[in-house]
Amino acid sequence: MLIGGKEPIVLSRLQSENGALPEFISATLLPGRGMNVFQITAFIPGLGKTELLASPTLEQAAQQLTGTGPDKHGDMSFRMGGAFLLPYPNRVRGKFNPQTQTITTEWDGHPLTLPANENPNTPGLEPVAMHGLMLDKAMDSVETNTMPDGGVATALYDAGDFGGHWPSQTQVAITIVLSGRAFDCIVTAKNVGDKPEPMAIGWHPYFAIPSGQRAQAMLRIPSSTRVEVNNYKEVFPTGRLLPVDGTPYDFIMRGGRALGKTYLDDDYVDLKSGLLDDGPVVELRDPASNFGLRVMALSTQIRSIQVYSPLDKKFVAIEPQFNYADPFGKEWHGQNAGMVTLDPGKSVTWKVRLELFSIHPSGDQKPDSHPLIPGQTTNSAQ
Asked: For the chain, which has fewer Cβ within 10 Å, the N-terminal or C-terminal residue?
């Protein structure tokens, strides 16, 4: 089966014999669609083999990822699995041209004209550019290798100037590493042109709640600050950063907080790291299935985590990214909104690790991450 003109890739490993601890089993990748991490499976004690991402079947995906209709510019890619987002995750606002279906914004005095690939059906809502320019791109080359406890896939894509939308030339490398205890995603963007360019990288995985019981699922977000938005239809940042302490959006406490009836489509910033952690860690817990997942941001340039969880869905999208929403917007009044400037010959790497744990482990596994260091945050973007 071809999706985006290429066969899906499956990394897999054999499950341990004792079955005492949760472990990763396989990952399905779509090299024809920007290396979308379409599905990850794991063995969960008490549940057996479990799909960790809210995705359709590959057959259904092939019918939806057509490049036409609602998938124009690859829009359907960020509605399933885990799409990689670059050179700009999240929304970008600008002046809309209805003839060309583009928006124009500005970076460092240079105009950027981007596809308006998120044009909501609701009349009156402002079209925006959304989630980058790699959603429907096929990788130029992919290599896979077997390791003693899993496998690795490395893909390369010569993005050029992203179809005339970006100021310089970019090469993208994506590496996926599967082992029993960890799942790593590594994305490197290199400026191979002769002009500076802005760059941000993100990921859009829809993590399933195995029990299907959203209200009791627990979320821990290592941040006490979120970006204010105008509303949850347009989700445009106002430029204000709001404290979450004492509000329904406060998920910083140890062990997390139940989602309950809180709708989320929020950008959390000023990320904090645990005492012994290598970076900020988001935790998703499903007490009804004794399931826990850690999403670890291992690159200092990751300054923002967008969290999306509608009330009527059985997933939580946890999106580690460099930038705040609408990073070129005037609402930020010139402050650093997370875009990295890449000079010619320079590169930047985004890295995230997933780990599994049982909430009530039977062995010596520690269910809780380390306490947060008051005031410790990731470094500012370069």
From this structure: N
Give residue 123's pLDDT band: very low, low, confident or very high (50, 70, 90).
Answer: low
Buried b (16+ CB within 10 A) or exposed e, 76-90: bbbbbbbbbbbbbbb
The residue segments making up the domain with residue 338 are 9-357
Is this prediction's pTM over 0.70? yes
Residue 309 has pLDDT above 80, yes or no: yes
Query: Do residues 116 and 127 lie in contact, with contact meaning Cβ atoms separated by under 8 Å?
Result: yes
Angle CA 179–181–186, to nearest 5? 60
The rounded Cα 55 to chain-centroid distance in angstroms is 15
Q: How far apart are CA 83 and CA 35, in angstroms?
A: 7
Whole-number Cα distances in Å, 264 to 15, 233, 277, 280, 315? 35, 12, 26, 19, 11
Measured CA to CA, the distance from residue 296 to residue 273 in angstroms comes to 10
Of residues 379 and 162, the one with the higher pLDDT is 162
Residue 340 binned pLDDT confidence (cut-offs 50, 70, 90): very high
- Give the whole-angstrom CA distance, residue 33 versus residue 76: 10
Collapsed DSSP state (helix, strand, coil) of residue 288? helix
CB atoms within 10 A of CB 30: 28
DSSP label of 59 = H
Q: How many domains does the chain have?
A: 1
Handedness of CA 332, 338, 339, 345 (dihedral sign): positive
Contact 327, 199 (CB under 8 A): no
Q: Is residue 271 part of a domain?
A: yes
Mapped onto helix, strand or coil, the DSSP state of residue 354 is strand
CATH number of the CATH domain containing 264? 2.70.98.10
3-state SS, residue 62: helix
